[in-house]
Structure formats: structure tokens, C-alpha cells
Amino acid sequence: MNPRIKKIEQEIDKLKGKVASYQTRCRELEQQKRELENTEIVGVVRSMDVSPDELAEVLRALRSGAPLPQNHLNKEDNNHAN
Question: Which residues form a coiled coil (predicted)?
């Protein structure tokens, strides 16, 4: 076999190994990022002092583009006034 072809094949194999390693590392970093985002979201939600039902209602309203439920708005207004 032509030595140049063999050299190129070796370089291809080496690069394929690096690509696989980088893809694995990228997936790991994406998972870490997702976990940190989830932790941050949970912290924000818990700080809002709303029940799970109220939270679900607010999220449905936001998703549909409807105005926020009044009971949540009143809580927010009361919290800012204190």
C-alpha cells in the first residue's frame, strides 16, 4: 500500500477518535448545564411561594398567551408592597 495512503488513514483514525471523545465531552457538558438550569428553575419557583396548582395555572396561561390568573397577580402585588 502506498505509504501516503497509510499515513492519511492513520490520521483519519486518530481524528475519528478525537471527534468521538469531543462528542462524549460535549454531551457531558450539556447534561451538567441542564442540571444547573433545572436547579436554578427549582430555586426560582420555590422562592415564588405559590402552590403547585397555582404554578400550573400560571404556566398554562403563559403558554397559551392568556393573561396571568388574578390570584397570582394579587400575590405578586402584595409581595412588592411589603
Answer: 5-39
Taken as a whole, the chain contains a residue count of 82
**What number of other Cβ atoms are within 10 A of residue 50's Cβ?**
17
Radius of gyration of the chain (CA): 26
Longest dimension (CA), the chain: 81
Q: What DSSP designation does 68 have? A: P
Please state the φ and ψ torsions of residue 15, each to the nearest 5 degrees.
-65, -40
Residue type, 58: V
pLDDT digits (tens, 9 = 90+) for 4-19: 999 999 999 999 999 9
54 grid coordinates: 397555582
Asked whether the whole model's pTM tops 0.85, one would answer no
Q: Exposed, middle or buried, 12 (CB in 10 Å: 0-12/13-18/19+)? A: exposed
